[in-house]
Design goal:
Elements lengths: L13 H6 L8 E5 L6 E6 L3 H20 L2 H17 L1 H12 L3 H21 L6 E3 L6 E9 L2 E5 L7 H13 L3 E4 L6 H13 L6 E3 L6 H9 L3 E7 L2 H12 L4 E5 L4 E5 L5 H13 L9 E7 H16 L19 H16 L3 E4 L3 E2 L5 E2 L2 E4 L6 H4 L6 E7 L2 H9 L3 E2 L1 E5 L3 H10 L4 E4 L14 E2 L2 E2 L4 H6 L2 E9 L2
Parallel strand pairs: 5-6, 5-8, 6-7, 8-9, 10-11, 10-18, 11-16, 15-16, 18-19
Antiparallel strand pairs: 1-2, 3-4, 4-22, 9-21, 12-15, 13-14, 17-20
């Protein structure tokens, strides 16, 4: 047992939620700390049968939850929010132990998760219909909105607390019941959040958790079971395509937040020091393991050398290590495969003329650590410019003019997030509107908020999470025409 979890009171309750009140005699799987390799927990390895049971429970819970007045649903969600805030330290310790991110980042993520729950607790009271002017006096026409039904959700390993909250909070506010399958690498914080949800008073069957060591069978059941009316998934574009195909026979609603290849553009009229700060945030938060991470850093020729010099100096100051250690800013990669991908991108760039300005190697130690790395001399023929690295690797690409960089930034199947730094307002507006991305950060390296719509264009996904728009994805619009009035 990780020593930092000894005092995490929620951790002791995970067995209860994992077993769902039953003795478990089936297969199990282990959860390890990526920083130390230490065994954290052994969980039941659930499959199709357990997923079907969870869906059946959700169908029963759905009716009770949807029938509750909005103010009552809001009250339960507010209690859940308060419990998460009160247990921030416990949740952050569990998160850091299973995922590896620095403890300060873990606490920030838990706060972000709580913010989504609070936001949608309030939005539960703001589901409005409308009346329509009828073409004759003997009828009335109106629109009501109702919950879509049971929602199957699959969350990723890189933000295992905030992604749970961001997905299920709007569904709960709309009146939907949930079947959640968290990532097999980081399921523990989701379990702890569900312990708190039980304490908050959600009716039986509203929240259902599936632990599984692999997602294919569970995902197929969620997509093909006719009692699941919607799928919400965050993960790779490849898996998103598969889930979308599996949902197509039933014309099932989907929300997909998929891969990215975010450009980070620095124009020659930018404040270079602020751009460096923003690039550090956008690239190295969560060790670069974010879907909105700056994957390609474009810098205009006139300021290229100045930016590169200052950026490399800042990157060299980042401290890598166990997320529980003081002063750590970069935690481990989630597993060895992540390191192998970074190494492949570095080797490909070097072979094609790229230069390593700092870092470039795995750290031979316990755990899965890689040095924060900066490459220059990058061209679009290199893999690092074409593929999402998902690690602490920052490639810098020189460009000449705005038309060129916008064209190159848009030359990808992805369209999730983009960033750029500039001061000329004419340029700001033109570039912001020309970038084919669902989210654009202008003179900032961080833009996520529960109040804003999160989602992408092209093959980065469908739908939006967060904001009032996120609630609409979990509601069905029903038109009522009343004659004989």
């Amino acid at each position: 047992m990780n020593r930092h979890l000894n005092d995490a009171g929620l951790f002791a309750n995970l067995e209860r939620i994992a077993h769902a009140g039953r003795d478990w005699h089936g297969p199990t799987f282990d959860i390890f700390n990526p920083s130390t390799g230490e065994l954290l927990a052994t969980l039941p390895d659930m499959g199709v049968a357990e997923t079907k049971d969870a869906i059946d429970r959700a169908v029963e819970g759905q009716h009770e939850w949807a029938a509750l007045p909005a103010k009552d649903k809001s009250a339960v969600m507010r209690r859940w929010h308060q419990l998460i805030v009160a247990h921030t330290d416990d949740l952050a310790a569990i998160l850091t132990a299973e995922m590896g991110k620095p403890l300060a980042e873990a606490k920030s993520e838990v706060s972000h998760a709580a913010a989504y729950i609070q936001w949608y607790a309030e939005e539960a009271n703001r589901i409005y219909g409308e009346t329509i002017s009828a073409p004759s006096n003997d009828r009335r026409m109106l629109v009501i909105k109702q919950p879509v039904g049971v929602v199957g959700t699959i969350t990723p390993w890189n933000f295992p607390a905030s992604m749970v909250a961001r997905k299920i909070s709007p569904a709960l506010a709309a009146g939907c019941a949930i079947v959640l399958k968290p990532a097999e690498q980081t399921p523990l914080v989701a379990g702890a959040m569900f312990v708190l949800a039980q304490q908050a008073g959600f009716p039986t069957g509203v929240l259902n958790l599936i632990y599984a060591s692999e997602g294919a069978a569970v995902g197929t059941e969620l997509c093909t079971n006719q009692n699941v009316r919607k799928i919400s998934f965050t993960g790779s574009t490849e898996v998103g395509r598969l889930l979308m195909r599996q949902c197509s026979d039933q014309i099932k609603k989907v929300s997909l937040e998929l891969g990215g290849n975010a450009p980070f553009i620095v124009f020659d009229d930018a404040d270079i020091d602020e751009a460096v700060d923003g690039a550090i945030q956008a690239k190295f938060r969560n060790a670069g393991q974010t879907c909105v991470s700056a994957n390609r850093i474009y810098v205009q020729s006139a300021v290229h050398d100045e930016f590169a010099e200052k950026f490399v100096a800042r990157v060299a100051e980042l401290k890598v290590g166990d997320g529980f250690s003081p002063g750590i800013t970069i935690g481990p990669m989630i597993d060895g495969h992540a390191i192998e991908k970074i190494e492949a991108h570095v080797a490909d760039a070097k072979a094609k003329g790229g230069e390593i300005r700092c870092g470039g190697h795995r750290i031979e130690n316990v755990g899965t650590f890689f040095e924060p790395t900066v490459l220059t001399g990058i061209t679009h023929e290199m893999r690092v410019a074409q593929e999402e690295t998902f690690g602490p690797l920052a490639p810098i690409i020189r460009f000449e003019d705005a038309d060129q960089v916008v064209r190159e930034a848009n030359d990808t199947i992805y369209g999730l997030a983009a960033y750029f730094y500039a001061s000329n307002l004419k340029r700001v507006w033109r570039v912001a509107e020309a970038l084919e991305y669902g989210m654009v950060g202008i003179n900032t390296g961080r833009m996520s908020s529960e109040a804003a719509p999160f989602g992408g264009m092209k093959q980065s996904g469908i739908g939006r999470e967060g904001s009032r728009h996120g609630l609409e994805d979990y509601l069905e619009m029903k038109y009522l025409c009343m004659g004989g009035i």
